[in-house]
Write a structure and sequence with these properties.
Strand order of the largest sheet: 6-5-4-3-2-1-13
Shape: globular
Distance between the termini: 74 Å
Mean pLDDT: 87
Low-confidence stretches: 6-28
Largest sheet: 7 strands, antiparallel
Number of strands: 19
């Protein structure tokens, strides 16, 4: 039996209204996410001076950033689909990142999106509190103990990170520094500051783009990429989000950019930037975008401004 014309119209109107409602909901979700991201990015502790990736099992590693006194500021649990050795051989399939705030609280985020490809959930928790996040379908329980330790529970395993002392234990046993891994080759230690920044950035050529990615063994996003380079070479944590990086130096026109400076992209009228790259001279930049870290010509990418890094 054919539908009456008014039934067809009613169905079409319902579809249009439903689609518009979904779009409004998505926009609200994105605004909420970016507001939380902007808040956390400007309230992180940015005093880390070094980092390492430590293999803790055949299918797991942990990425750590530490201060000069050994206090831990960032913990990322990396989950692999294939067994890992001491040297790099595969990228992680899932990860969970936990970072310290100046308030004394922690916040967590991971590769699980709650809507679309670029919308992650941020979870903030204080001492005596915790939350559950997911690496794929695998639940990972996070708990910030009253003693100031981060407990990461997954698959009957317990990773205990002593945030003040820097000790990292797995099931009550200390992990070993000999399990630390070097990504491809060592950090360059010869030459000028800008030369070392550029050489270090090129170590990461080909690393896949992963939104919210933190470790080169798992994949990086644009902000984590430039942060990792500055942490490697200058022992300086410049933040894992563009919202804080855009405030680090003097804003200058793109035409005045120098080697080692950061280049930013910003939507007109928006408060925060959405992309960052590193200037490497000769009219070129290196960025984590698209499929992976690569070199592009500045004129073909059209950044809005640059900052001279101090």
């Amino acid at each position: 039996m054919q539908k009456r014309w008014w039934e067809v119209v009613f169905i079409l109107v319902g579809c249009i209204v439903g689609w518009q409602g979904a779009q409004i909901s998505a926009q609200a979700s994105y605004k909420t996410m970016f507001a939380r991201e902007g808040y956390f990015s400007t309230h992180e502790r940015l005093d880390a001076t070094k980092s390492y990736d430590r293999r803790i099992s055949r299918y797991k590693s942990v990425y750590i950033t530490q201060t000069a006194k050994g206090q831990i500021r960032n913990v990322s649990l990396m989950c692999y689909a294939q067994p890992q050795g001491k040297h790099f051989n595969h990228y992680a399939s899932h990860w969970v990142n936990v970072r310290a705030l100046r308030s004394g609280k922690l916040y967590a985020y991971n590769d699980q999106t709650v809507y679309g490809h670029y919308l992650v959930a941020y979870h903030s928790f204080g001492r005596g509190q915790g939350t559950t996040v997911y690496a794929g379908e695998q639940p990972i329980k996070l708990h910030f103990s009253k003693q100031g330790n981060l407990l990461v529970k997954y698959q009957k395993q317990v990773l205990t990170v002593h945030l003040q002392s820097g000790q990292v234990n797995l099931n009550g046993q200390p992990t070993k520094t000999k399990a630390n891994r070097i990504f491809k080759r060592a950090v360059p230690n010869k030459g000028s500051r800008t030369g070392r920044l550029i050489a270090d950035a090129k170590r990461y050529l080909g690393v896949p783009y992963r939104y919210a990615g933190r470790d080169a063994f798992g994949g990086l996003d644009c902000a984590s990429f430039v942060d990792l380079v500055y942490l490697d070479v200058e022992h300086r944590d410049i933040g894992g989000m563009t919202g804080v990086q855009q405030k680090l130096g003097k804003h200058v026109p793109v035409s005045q950019v120098r080697k080692g400076d950061l280049l930013f992209w910003q939507i007109a009228g928006q408060r925060y930037t959405y992309h960052v790259a590193l200037a490497i001279g000769h009219g070129k930049l290196i960025e984590e975008a698209g499929k992976s870290v690569h070199v592009s010509r500045i004129t073909s990418r059209h950044p809005q401004f640059a900052i001279h890094m101090q």
